[in-house]
Amino acid sequence: MQASPSGDEAPVALVGNDGVVGVAAFMGTLPEASRALVIHPGHAWRLPASVLSSEVPGPSQVLKATVGYLISLTSQLSQTAFCQQHHNVEQRLARWLLNAMDRLPGDEVAIDLGELAPLLGVSADELARAAAQLVGVGALVCEPGRLVMPRRAVLEAQSCGCHVPAEDVVRWSAPAPD
Predict the structure, then answer these.
(1) What's the rounded Cα separation, in Å, for the pair 174 and 168?
(2) How far is residue 92's CA from residue 96's CA, in Å, rounded to a whole number?
(3) What is the DSSP letter of 138?
């Protein structure tokens, strides 16, 4: 979440099993100006940046992985900004759900629809209408505390297509295993 001087916040990226939070600290720069918000239960690792800088896996491997992730994150940020300006709420919801599915195991996200509205920058009513459209075509099931995406292909068809360019960069920038 990125904050304005007045305290308003907006989501800027979705991080899951594809990346890390706190890259600025690892790179030895100023602390992150944004904050992370956990929206789905699961497992994560937390370690001081000093552990990463000790180059346990080897400096080139850590650097390649970090730079690859930064390229991927920059692409996601750019695509999100474009999507917010050019696509309707239903398309943006479908894109967000596809991004979440790529970063979580299974086909569900542990979040209420009402909690998702501020993350997409829309009113609860707007999001409810968009979700109803996705439910109507079989791309989404809304249950208390979780959203289930039973048919990915249908969800992709309802999306604006912004999901694909960002995911292509993720695949391209991921370091090849040694």
Answers:
(1) 10
(2) 6
(3) T
Each residue of 125-140: b (16+ CB within 10 Å) or e? ebbeebbebbeeeebb
Residue 84 CA to residue 168 CA, distance in Å, equals 19
Tens-digit pLDDT profile for residues 43-75: 776 666 666 555 555 666 767 777 777 777 777
Residue 154 host element (H or E): helix 152-158
Q: Residues 73, 26: contact at Cβ < 8 Å? A: no
Contact assessment for residue 110 and residue 41, using Cβ atoms and an 8 Å cutoff:
yes
Is the Cβ–Cβ distance between 97 and 109 less than 8 Å?
Answer: yes
Mean pLDDT of 20-38: 65
